[in-house]
From TrEMBL:
<dbReference type="GO" id="GO:0005886">
    <property type="term" value="C:plasma membrane"/>
</dbReference>
<keyword id="KW-0863">Zinc-finger</keyword>
<feature type="domain" description="Arf-GAP">
    <location>
        <begin position="8"/>
        <end position="128"/>
    </location>
</feature>
<dbReference type="InterPro" id="IPR001849">
    <property type="entry name" value="PH_domain"/>
</dbReference>
<dbReference type="GO" id="GO:0005096">
    <property type="term" value="F:GTPase activator activity"/>
</dbReference>
<dbReference type="GO" id="GO:0008270">
    <property type="term" value="F:zinc ion binding"/>
</dbReference>
<keyword id="KW-0862">Zinc</keyword>
<dbReference type="InterPro" id="IPR037849">
    <property type="entry name" value="PH1_ADAP"/>
</dbReference>
<dbReference type="GO" id="GO:1902936">
    <property type="term" value="F:phosphatidylinositol bisphosphate binding"/>
</dbReference>
<dbReference type="Pfam" id="PF00169">
    <property type="entry name" value="PH"/>
</dbReference>
<dbReference type="InterPro" id="IPR001164">
    <property type="entry name" value="ArfGAP_dom"/>
</dbReference>
<keyword id="KW-0479">Metal-binding</keyword>
<dbReference type="InterPro" id="IPR052589">
    <property type="entry name" value="Arf-GAP_dual-PH_domain"/>
</dbReference>
<dbReference type="Pfam" id="PF01412">
    <property type="entry name" value="ArfGap"/>
</dbReference>
<dbReference type="InterPro" id="IPR037278">
    <property type="entry name" value="ARFGAP/RecO"/>
</dbReference>
<dbReference type="GO" id="GO:0005547">
    <property type="term" value="F:phosphatidylinositol-3,4,5-trisphosphate binding"/>
</dbReference>
<keyword id="KW-0343">GTPase activation</keyword>
Length: 364
């Protein structure tokens, strides 16, 4: 008969090992759950997705559930490292691997891709997001009325563009977007859909946004990774001497901070976003590293006119000083912390020629 306390102690010790101390799927620390059929330790959030895969994964608590001796031995013989070496052996370098704070659809599809579809266990496995041309239908938010309408999108590595069409495709694309300044990030709350994706790009030195979703989680994540694939292909062309490790952080970038601030009167919405820019844009403050003359600090500015909010943030750039006002001290601290995170980030060698910098965007 299994010794409950002994097996629990063994499992807790296994979970503390360096190869098991982080969730096998999102990297969250101190996982308290395990898949006794896959031999991996996972966090609470990822365990929920595993529970939806009963034919693949059986989830148990390492603290609360009863474990047979055979299952404990199976966990000892496997573990997160062994699973990674098998299930993630051929993950494309551009493929986004979710972090603990990422949205549900990214985490779910990553888990399903690994264990249910076995997308990365074989070298020559068919992966549609690696195709030179990726096309399909997405629900796009209308600019005027805010309604979502189904539109055809085409992503092509041949000319590094993303095109989308209205109802009559014979009239050509409604827009042709260069992937040079393209960014994509999941924004389910902002878009109002669990699969909401925000695509940001530049037109004549102005930032534009497309808000899209797909009803199928796998399809929207395929679109996201198809964008990442073409972005990496473009970056390799633009910076042929840069390594994958140097380029990967610039494929797509998540928002670091988003909220409202005042600037000399009107109320603007600003967003922190990692982007590639080649020109200064109206309504954007470019943020570079500290050793290039950029700094940020809290302040209580005197003499500002028209500002209802009193918690100031001063951003110094080599060209000028910007003063923004926050409603509360908490907002002020969060903005200063976020800005300091960017300013403390060193630039890579190719940044000096490509002007890879971070803008504080005025969102329309």
């Amino acid at each position: 008969m299994a010794n409950r306390e002994k097996n629990k102690k063994t499992l807790l010790e296994l979970a503390k090992l360096s190869q098991n101390c982080c969730c096998a799927d999102c990297g969250a620390t101190d996982p308290d759950w395990a898949s006794c059929t896959l031999g991996i330790f996972v966090c609470l959030n990822c365990s929920g997705t595993h529970r939806n895969l009963p034919s693949v994964s059986r989830i148990k608590s390492i603290r609360l559930d009863f474990w047979d001796d055979e299952l404990v031995q199976f966990m000892k013989s496997n573990g997160n490292r062994a699973a990674k070496n098998f299930y993630e052996k051929f993950v494309p370098v551009f493929y986004y691997q979710p972090q603990p704070d990422d949205c549900e659809v990214l985490r779910e599809q990553w888990i399903r891709a690994k264990y249910e579809r076995m997308e990365f266990a074989e070298k020559n496995r068919d992966r549609p997001y690696t195709a030179d041309v990726y096309e399909g239908m997405l629900w796009k938010k209308g600019k005027d009325n805010g309604q979502f309408l189904e539109r055809k999108f085409v992503l092509s590595v041949h000319d590094f563009t993303l095109k989308y069409y209205k109802e009559d495709e014979s009239k050509g694309p409604k827009a042709t977007i260069s992937v040079k300044d393209l960014n994509a990030t999941f924004q389910p709350e902002k878009i109002g859909h669990a699969h909401g994706l925000q695509i940001t790009y530049c037109v004549e030195n102005h930032t534009r946004n497309l808000f899209v979703y797909h009803k199928n989680g796998q399809e929207i994540v395929n679109w996201f990774n198809a964008i990442r694939a073409i972005r990496l292909a473009y970056l390799k062309t633009a910076f042929p001497t840069a390594s994958n490790e140097e380029l990967i952080p610039w494929i797509t970038r998540n928002y670091l901070k988003e909220g409202y601030m005042e600037k000399t009167g009107p109320l603007y919405e600003f967003s922190f976003l990692f982007v590639l820019k080649d020109a200064i844009e109206l309504g954007v403050v470019f943020i570079g590293p500290e050793n290039h003359g950029y700094s940020v600090r809290e302040c209580v500015p005197k003499g500002t006119r028209g500002n209802k909010w009193k918690c100031g943030v001063i951003v110094e750039t080599p060209d000028r000083q910007f003063v923004f006002m926050c409603e509360q001290e908490r907002d002020q601290r969060e903005w200063v912390e976020a800005l300091k995170t960017i300013i403390s980030k060193p630039m890579m060698p190719q940044d000096y020629t490509s002007k890879i910098i971070t803008p504080l965007n005025q969102m329309c």
